[in-house]
Amino acid sequence: MKTLIQKLAAAAFGLLVMAAPAGADGLIMARMNQPFPEAMALLQSAISARGYTITRLQQVNENLARREYKSDMYRVVYFGKFDEVRRVTAAHPELIPFLPLNITIFAEGDQALLVSSHPRTLEDFFPDPALKPIFDHWEADIDAIMDELREGDGSGS
Length: 157
Known about the structure:
Layout: H1 4-19, E1 27-32, H2 36-49, E2 53-59, H3 61-66, E3 74-80, H4 82-91, E4 101-108, E5 111-117, H5 119-125, H6 132-152
Helix pairs in contact: 2-6, 5-6
């Protein structure tokens, strides 16, 4: 019998492998005509304004530097609502590898790009009807965050 960890690892690996051919279809993206520091501040504000707590800001510079990519402007912002994550993972521990939600932000010249996995992708792997409203809620919130950032910077992209 597989352990819970083995099941979770298999689910995470399966999602990554199966989502790969989808390309941009499985992503929510935004481009901002703002330098990275300002875009990062606006992202954190937009996340907090929707009642989420930022749980971690992960720098990925070391791994990028090992691959000769020079940038200190690349972060993954993890966020969630504690009670919501606790409820969802209590009922569906297989979702633990996918939480908290996250948005990656990185500099591209004088602009910032933001990318997040589309919560709808999780629906394909976790078809429990009880999860659909949660995935829909996460999708609406991430879309609203990205829309606010697109609109707030004047680029309209």
